[in-house]
Amino acid sequence: MAKASSKEPRELPPSEPMPARVDPCLATLVDKPPKGPDWAYEVKWDGYRIAVHIESGRVRILTRGGYDWTDRFPSIVDDARRLAVKTAILDGEAVVLDDKGRSDFGMLQRALGRLPSAVEAGAIVFYAFDLLYLNGRDLRRLPLRERRRLLEPLVAGREGAVRLSEEVQADGDEFFRVACAHGLEGIIAKHVEKPYRSGRGEWWQKITCKRRNSFVIVGFEPSTVPGRLGRLLLAARNDGGLVYVGGCGAGWSHELSRELRNVLASIVTKKPAVNLRRKNAVFTEPMLVAEVEYRAWTDDGKLRHASFKGIHELEEGSEVYDLSANLA
Which of 44, 190, 270, 271 is catalytic? Predict the structure, then answer.
């Protein structure tokens, strides 16, 4: 597949102060890839969206929600200091790769210390896919093809903790088919002539091999095996509250099942966060969010063939599936 073609470069914008934070550009979920010469494609990485801020004498790493996670990514910080820039903001994804080179969200969380793990923090890799600021110049008004032209010389060919997320121009349907055949989460399509716009819009589109969203954990059902987890009870947002959307009973190892059971046992409550009566249910405080992959929704609004992919704390700004927004 050929790399995206470039046109004559534009003149760089005038010098401007470096922004303390930039709200990220978010991709809109669509059913199939867009077509046309103005679209380029990338692998959809399965990790944490972060921005790497390089300033004089320091590197900061901010999450999508604006939290400072610099101390959680020491290898990325160390490698970012070696880039040939004075100041920069790189947009991308922090991932851990499995033995087949695929990003694995569960391995990433374990490397970050959410659960006991042999995966070390040094295994985390940052794939940069956009450049928002460079050496005193705010690049967000430039089209994506220009931002990529400036990004690639900085990170292309590197094998450390900071790497380039490769961009290609290809037939979108074929690229998507190949991505799914290789067990990837999906692809991202980006319009190469558009500037960088914070928030969700049509200029970035995501096409996933399976549906995947975040749901609040509101309880669990114990396994018939003592000390293990049988099923997570999940809820989505709806009109400002939470509504039960079914359970998830797959996607974890025996070891992880025990670890999850212990974590949930520490936040048990007698007041369920949803209107639900189940004989064996143990309700928990709505403090954790599960990343879940699933095939579809049932007619009565429950998840079909749900599989657990990861867990994180429910924080302000956490993205949780919203029924009211998706049914609007």
Answer: 44
